[in-house]
Amino acid sequence: MHTLGEKLEHTILIVEDSAFEQRMLVDMLSEYPYRLSVAFNGLQGYQLALANQPDLILLDVRMPSMDGYTACRLLKANPATQNIPVIFLSGADADAERIMGLSIGGVDYVSKPFSPGELAARIQVHLNLVQRQAAPQPAQQGPADPDAVVVNAAKRLIGANLAELPSLAEIAKSVGTYREKLSQQFRAQTGMTVFAFIREERIRRGEQLLRETDIDVQDIALMIGFNNAGNFATAFRERMGITPSAFRHSMQHKKTPDGV
């Protein structure tokens, strides 16, 4: 138990919709020198993280209004909060749930029920990692535009799921908004529709894979969401003025001594 005179070195934000589990976490962590704050859903947690800049966030997955995955996407899309480590807490122990949490930016995933000692140890590990990796940060230039954060989160989600994209409605829900609003935000922030961005991102990723890897053109096509190499070749040629195979050949030629 820490004493009143002991310095509280780290601040931890607990985002948990269950009052019982929230209280349990507060009681558990009060044994350690942490300053604690609490939120009852993902949106409130995201807003508190922006306002208070905690050192670490404990984020429940299943919550009303905004779940933990959506909150994490927004946290990682906002320059003001992207470096705050997020530990997911969930009653679900399925591999898909863990993979989702880690793939969208969580540093850890702890399944309920967990022991106080295990959670405390995981928290301390990630706080220590942050301290060792800390570098001087540029001064903040004011809060990020909320619409820009949502669009950035949507771009990240699209980029991570090009092969099997969710519907526009599902993309919008996954970043805390709805289809029509996301379409408006995308146009305002990027000057293009969501579908136009998807097309551009697929061609950009295809160009990168053609340049940097030896992956077969057919496999690249499938990796970036085209049904076959022919559809990829048509879209690539329309955008780049050259077929994927010819583009790769030109890149390989540039790498040879004669092509320099």
Tell me about this structure.
This protein has 260 residues and is an alpha/beta fold. The chain has 2 domains: 124 residues, Response regulator (Rossmann fold, 3-Layer(aba) Sandwich), CATH 3.40.50; 114 residues, Arc Repressor Mutant, subunit A (Orthogonal Bundle). Helices cover 55% and strands 10% of the residues. It has 12 helices and 5 strands. It has a 5-stranded parallel sheet, sandwiched between helices. Helix 2 runs parallel beside helix 3, helix 3 crosses helix 6 and helix 9 crosses helix 12. It is elongated, with a radius of gyration of 22 Å. The N terminus is likely disordered.
Quick synopsis:
With about 260 residues, the chain is of the alpha/beta class. The chain has twelve helices and five strands.
Reconstruct the topology from this structure.
Layout: E1 10-15, H1 19-29, E2 34-39, H2 42-52, E3 56-60, H3 68-77, E4 86-90, H4 95-103, E5 108-111, H5 116-133, H6 146-160, H7 168-174, H8 179-190, H9 194-212, H10 217-223, H11 229-240, H12 244-255
Parallel strand pairs: 1-2, 1-3, 3-4, 4-5
Helix pairs in contact: 2-3, 3-6, 6-8, 9-12, 10-11
